[in-house]
Amino acid sequence: MKTDLTATRVIPILGDPVAQVSTPGIWNAQFARTGQDAVCVPISLPAQGLDAFVAWVRLSDNLPGFLTTIPHKAALTEACDRVEPDAQILGVVNTIRRDPDGTLIGEMFDGHGMLDAIEATGARIRGARIALCGAGAAGSAIAIQAIRRGAAGLFISDMVPAQAEALVARLAGLGKTELATGPAEMADAAEILINASPAGSPGMLDAPFPAKVIEAATCVADAVTDPAETVLIALARAAGVRVVQGAEMAAHQGARMRAFLGLEAG
Amino acid sequence: MKTDLTATRVIPILGDPVAQVSTPGIWNAQFARTGQDAVCVPISLPAQGLDAFVAWVRLSDNLPGFLTTIPHKAALTEACDRVEPDAQILGVVNTIRRDPDGTLIGEMFDGHGMLDAIEATGARIRGARIALCGAGAAGSAIAIQAIRRGAAGLFISDMVPAQAEALVARLAGLGKTELATGPAEMADAAEILINASPAGSPGMLDAPFPAKVIEAATCVADAVTDPAETVLIALARAAGVRVVQGAEMAAHQGARMRAFLGLEAG
């Protein structure tokens, strides 16, 4: 028996449902491009299966870790042996690394991915005034990264104002970034606009910021991937503002996740 | 969220080690060829992880089931809710189907695969005298299928004679096939020779049957896949005897397994 071989590394992505995730297709294309013997596979799993899933993953030496999407991001934070500091503040993880001894370490990369994508356009986060729509899991991760990277101001709006207020309260004291909340109409001083809400998705097509706010910005980023060209992106493009689409955020986030899992980020 | 989509079907193959298995490569090529949205992935898992593995698989609706290799074939027989009759006699399974309600049904396909491959050459099992070397898991499965398909005689040899004798005792009364055991030298009345022992693998290169037995046969089959051309196969070929290589057995077995899992056998 050839025990000198290394098995293909398998990276499951858990969800319930999971059929909608595009990660396996994107990652597997990246693995093919970079010549990595690895495969990302979707796993449909209800919450009551998480404990068992984590138990065997600890023992499997060809699993560098796994990814998760809705609705397991919070529950898996509990299942990790260690959670990176920002993910701990957020209370959610989307990537769980399995170290060779079976230790599981969780991190949340939505914020890194979005801000890496914005900076890749040449925009600077340090010193910038940022307006963020959406104070859910992705929005919260983006907000922390904006603070970590030295944004001058962060204005957070949400369809549920109390959710934006709760996020601001949770982030207070984390950095020197000036935090504020209010309706998106009040975001007109922001250079960078970020949508981390479902606005722009099928069924809620309206842009999350009014046209005058979009036109006053220098960079507009949207976490929504379906459609690729949201109303927000279209309005920004028409106004000559540089744009970041959801797919670019996903690509940067993917590279971060792969590096965290010990794969070639590529 | 697009919940009308169907997630890629994932078929893990468990082993410890698992890096040596060729099944994922073969199956994934078959899925690509037949246009099936499915992927077979190796999972390295020690025995203590089996219970947890089975627990989450029951809950995951994009897993039609899973495969297993050494050393889990016996332990997983216990984990199934139901084991098909021949696999129950064998006490081993290599394929576990997950029905939509989470029920797990185990079957062992080594015998089907080998005898399908032999019959695909035009050789007939019904009425044939067969000599089998190797009374382990694969050999036992082949022996049962030889009986089920009406072989006239089945002569079983094994490096450990007691193992061959135990198998014959276990198979007694299963059919009308005349059963016998002894050293492979005594197999000279057999029309069909089958190797299900490691003989021919690196480190134990000798053929499992003597030349005069090989030359007297009409069909010689070898379960060994590495090397593809074993000494047994080479000797048979040189003697003008029709041959079945390990890869052919694997291909036929794979088709049976996929059909059992509700995939296109193709």
Automatic annotation (TrEMBL), chains A, B:
Q: Which InterPro entries does UniProt cross-reference here?
A: Aminoacid_DH-like_N_sf (IPR046346), NAD(P)-bd_dom_sf (IPR036291), Shikimate_DH-bd_N (IPR013708), Shikimate_DH_fam (IPR022893)
Pathway info? Metabolic intermediate biosynthesis; chorismate biosynthesis; chorismate from D-erythrose 4-phosphate and phosphoenolpyruvate: step 4/7
SUPFAM superfamilies documented for this protein? Aminoacid dehydrogenase-like, N-terminal domain (SSF53223), NAD(P)-binding Rossmann-fold domains (SSF51735)
Q: Does the keyword Lipid metabolism apply?
A: no
Q: List the EC numbers from the record.
A: 1.1.1.25
Q: Which UniProt keywords apply?
A: Amino-acid biosynthesis, Aromatic amino acid biosynthesis, Oxidoreductase, Plasmid
**One GO cellular component, as annotated:** cytosol
Q: Name one GO biological process term.
A: chorismate biosynthetic process
Name of the protein in its database record: Shikimate dehydrogenase
- Source species, please? Pseudooceanicola algae
